[in-house]
Amino acid sequence: MSDAPHIPVLLDEVLEGLAVQPGSAQVDATFGAGGYTRAILAAGGRVFAFDRDPDAIADGQALVAASDGALTLIAATFSALEAELAARDALPVDGVVMDIGVSSMMLDRPERGFSFQQDGPLDMRMSQAGESAADFLNTADEDVIADVLYEYGEEPRSRRVARAIVAARPLTRTTELANVVRKALGYKPHDKKDPSTRTFQAIRIHINRELGELADGLAAAERALGPGGRLAVVTFHSLEDRLVKRFFRERSGGLPGGSRHLPQVAAKAEPSFENVARAVRAGEAELARNPRARSATLRVAQRTAAAAWVNEGAL
What we know:
Oligomer: single chain
Largest sheet: 8 strands, mixed
């Protein structure tokens, strides 16, 4: 880890939402560069930190060694947090923070293939295993690609982009894909937003099953938290935020069960969350030092003593 560690977005607001007490058991569900974990440790909490990225796990070992036993780093997706904590006899926990989406570490490393702004292999795998972006784009049917771009990137001209991708196959580099999308959509250098943003987001979400993972992770956190425990979730685009907002509204009794992304609820249950806070976004000072915070939204709620809701499957 560097001497000047990455500072995650909305750090003060997340710590306030978690209300970390000395000796409390906290989960950093998305360890990344360790920013939230460092702050929780500094507040006296014990941390169980999760990450599916082998690079993050390797980079975090120095912090584990320096934590005097207060940090346990777990190489797993956050949807597995309940099972992983149970295996360590660490349930229930007092708080869970989830920072959803791609990390700055991944974006800033061209070899990971997440950024259309830097040339690298067309990869995008958070876990560095399984189907890559190139594998998907070079083998999937045109209709499947178009559906992914429309659903996960909200790309209004998804059919045109998918047709251009298929015509340009095989694609192996991030710059190749970005240029195909730009040409298909008539991008000009002076345009404010690069149209390949939506395509890269969509493919990344699909490859990493991000919305399904988020739905499963929220339910796992619900089961892992003890009464009075806090769940803080930071999202970076509307698809994620809508899912989290609906989860908290549903679980706090504000909505009937049912969502095309959230697991189906078998029967109406007692509210498992309360004190759902208003959405929080970054202030001007934070935006000035970290432009990536512009799209961040934090939602926090507190666990009740009611049993976790029973779900019938997930994405």
